[in-house]
Specification:
Chain lengths: 321, 291
Amino acid sequence: MLEVSDLSVRFDTDDGPVHAVDRMSLTLAPGEVLGVVGESGCGKSVTCMSFVRLLPETAHVTGRVLFEGRDLLTLSARELRRIRGREISYVFQEPMSSLNPVFTVGRQVGEVLQRHLGLSRAAARSRTIELLRLVRIPAAERRLDEYPHQLSGGMRQRVMIAIAIACDPKVLVADEPTTALDVTIQAGILDLMRDIRERLGTAIVLITHNLGVVADVADRVVVMYAGRKAEEAPVPELFAHPQHPYTIGLLGAVPRPYEGEGTRERLQEIPGRVPSLHELPQACAFADRCPRADEVTRSQIPQLREVRPSHFVACFHPGPG
Amino acid sequence: MNVIVVAELDPRTRRRRLLRKRFLRRPVAVAGLVVVLFFVVVAIFAPWVAPHSSAFTDFNHTLAKPGSRYLLGTDELGHDELSRIIWGARSSMLVGVLATLLAMVIAVPIGMVAGYYRGWTDTVIARATDVLLSFPFVILAVGLAAILGPSLLNATLAIGIGSIPGFIRIARGETLARREEDYVPAAIANGATDRTIIFRHILPNMTSTLLVQATLTIPQAIIGEAVLSFLGLGVQPPQTSWGVMLQDAQSYTSQAPRLAVFPGIALVLVVLAFNVFGDGLRDILDPRTTR
């Protein structure tokens, strides 16, 4: 349904160009939950923002984003607005500030319904109540007339999700939807995501740096590093047989609270830092931090290849740690 | 058993109550509001409040001292001073409010477009505003009034246009700040048009700033009207205004200084009242205010 190929994003800054995303490819099937994982600045958000061209004007986006046979990167602004929030919608990281403080939540959900579906004010209102119930906001009829500052972070994120699913979109991009929330509330939001996929059949792109979240809700995972895809596999496969040293490093850095006597190991960190994205190295971007790096790694860009069934890795020396 | 019932208040009502409480804690601002309201009421009900019409002349009592017959005395033509001050309040309020509204209606969209789109649009608008702001307001208004010709309407236009640059700057600055807030990209991601974002998302978030700017622009416009009338570029007889009265009083400053003092006091009082009220408003609407 959604097919991203050779997507590259370059930002022209005062310090020269920054290559945020380099020839990234993704596919998303209807009803699928795709996890996109990576460190801050690895290009996961930028990749997903460029689907409907939400990036600032300083961004140069090349490649193709095919959505139901149309290349979104070539659509006019007017056509894009019909897709944004209706076919492809977004939930962002900051529930505290993504709602407009001067309007009631009901009006903000209703605004989308009126714009995209042409509902009347009254119809939008009753649909809003349904939506707020769907995202499990208690006493939805009362919450409707409240202002964002009266809601907790978790409730606000639920409202944001209600806005995002208001027009029954085919794709929901959730960019770190739980990062700003308490752990107990995170679980509720993830549960809601699963519920939305099951009840509405919405395909979800879940951007996160938390592998635990991915294991919890995603079907398939893409691991990104320095603007490139490092590894891609179905969730059980990736967790059972990680191939890329970076993925292995990430898994080693996930805390596992108390798994029985004497198993409390030190968390493994990945040495070194993410490379600057000012120039694209003609080498594996992870080489400087990789225990397996050698001459080949430092002189060529690794291509993605299938090492196990539907398990792709961009690494010269893949294999379990 | 004691049950504490916490009354659930509508958030608007609650905010209004909080603002009222904060406002009442500022006696100077309250006094300002009282004086402003007093003059507004007097201006609106001038025909009923004023003892005489603005054209009234009593040639038997010219330059009369304040007394029981004429509370504030009469001028050289036998006009009743008190009546003229009341009728003059009309001109002042009318010009002050209308000119400010005119400036807002024109300037706010321009400033918001500049702040929202930035780039060369912003550069052109912002620089042009800077050029206009470099002229003193009164000079700008006098120049415009001289071109348009003397009348109350033209004075309003001149003062309104003269107030535009200040409003553009405020609206632009606010928009620049607001467009960076997270609800703007969220609205874009939901398919909102630029117009929706500017007028439905950003504008309502800057109403308090605009309100404060308006209460500080009105007194400026009132002074502007007085200046124009003083120079003969404003109100024409038989209508009157405080500026006209000050002008008329000039020739009699040694014989009857009160002719200049009374309208002067009215002018100072109104301008000061608007300013302290505006200051108070700014304080209570500032989210950082805790008192």
